[in-house]
Amino acid sequence: MAAEHVDLLRRFRPQLVYDSLEAYFADHPGQMVVNPGNELRRGDEVLARVDDGTLTLDVLKPDGGALANDVLSIKGRDYAKQYGALRLAHPEFNNMMVARARTDDHGVVWLQYWLWYFYNDYRLTADVGLHEGDWEMVQLRLGDDGTPDYAIYNQHKRAQRRPWDRVEKDPDNPDTAIVYVARGSHASYFEPGVHPTEVWADVCDGGRKGPPARLLVIDDGTPWARWPGRWGDTRPRNATESDSPTGPGRKKEWDNPAHAFDHAYEEERPAKHPLAGPDFGVGRHDGRLLITYNLIRLTGTPKTVVVNVNSTQEPGVPPKTFAFDVPTGAKRGSIATDVPVDSAKTYDIRLSMDIRTPAGETLPSVTVRRTLDPGDHAPKRPFTTTLGTLFVPVTEWVKRLLRRRP
């Protein structure tokens, strides 16, 4: 690759901004060939293993007998646990983008940033859309002056494009586009909020800015990028789901970078705002996280509580996200989770509730942050919860009194 193209890839590297509840981040795809237990499989046949050293990126080639039904398989389903251990064991793979420049048949230069995620953990509306491995892409088209004139962000089976002068930039660097990464699905958006999709809804509140990503620069001849197999062994359970993805070199944009641009939508589709949600309290008992909630302000039917747990006193350990069903009927409730929280550490807890609206949509509430201090203690009740608990019964009593008056 020409040196000037490498310089352009570095100059215009985008900034990823994640949702507060995100638990899987853009990393080096080499994670799949170092994670213990991972295998290269063809049906029931094991072709190579991490554990015996036979599985490497060099094994993944577009020729030499490789087939489209070959898969990189993760052993087990404890993805969060494996991902945390993987990031600790191989920090050299953390926070990376796969970068490539391509000149099309008309002499136009495109900067492609391929984003690899260990797991697609989509839990906004139901236990669907989950799959091992996830490849996404952000692409910039360069104009005649050698700077971008358009940005294209991939979103599931479609893409959105926007003129460069209307793309949000990093306040400290006008060459750096901001990419809002949707929770779990990792679709890329130009602004935060709740974005309707073909089936569900994507949400990104922009609450977790990623560190500047390092670049893994590849070229057209990188073998593993064009390997025909799938980066994960997930198979769809219904029509709304999909297989684990193929790699960058199997996408139409690899040979024809204008494909996504030509099929992208450009019209503005304003994002929805998250719903007002419950007040939350957090505590710990016997080394496990306790959550309380109060639904006095809630309009709609609560479905699940989604909670993200992180501690700066656990360096290298990524945030972890958990989902818990909400019992129906009660205006107040508590959840005794099985999430371990060390009694000697302080945790940043972020919580949201998925709510079924009267219109039949399932949307997230606003995400709130709570600090879990060291020691065993009951969940602390925020002032708004305490005030609301006192105020609502009084207002209900006044309403009943007024209804009795002639």
Topology, pairings included?
Blueprint: H1 3-11, E1 15-18, E2 39-42, E3 45-49, E4 70-73, H2 79-89, E5 96-103, E6 109-120, E7 131-142, E8 148-155, E9 158-163, E10 169-170, E11 173-181, E12 188-189, E13 193-196, E14 201-204, E15 208-209, E16 214-217, H3 252-255, H4 258-263, E17 279-285, E18 288-294, E19 301-310, E20 320-325, E21 332-340, E22 347-356, E23 362-364, E24 368-372, H5 383-404
Parallel strand pairs: 1-11, 5-16
Antiparallel strand pairs: 1-15, 2-3, 2-4, 5-6, 6-7, 7-8, 8-9, 10-11, 11-12, 13-14, 17-18, 18-21, 19-20, 19-22, 22-23, 22-24
Task: Give your account of this protein's structure.
There is one protein chain. A hairpin with a 5-residue loop joins strand 7 (131-142) and strand 8 (148-155). The protein has five helices and 24 strands. 40% of the residues are buried. It has 406 residues and is mainly β. The protein folds into two domains: 3-263, no CATH class; 279-393, Immunoglobulins (Immunoglobulin-like). The chain has helices at residues 3-11, 79-89, 252-255, 258-263, 383-404, and strands at 15-18, 39-42, 45-49, 70-73, 96-103, 109-120, 131-142, 148-155, 158-163, 169-170, 173-181, 188-189, 193-196, 201-204, 208-209, 214-217, 279-285, 288-294, 301-310, 320-325, 332-340, 347-356, 362-364, 368-372.
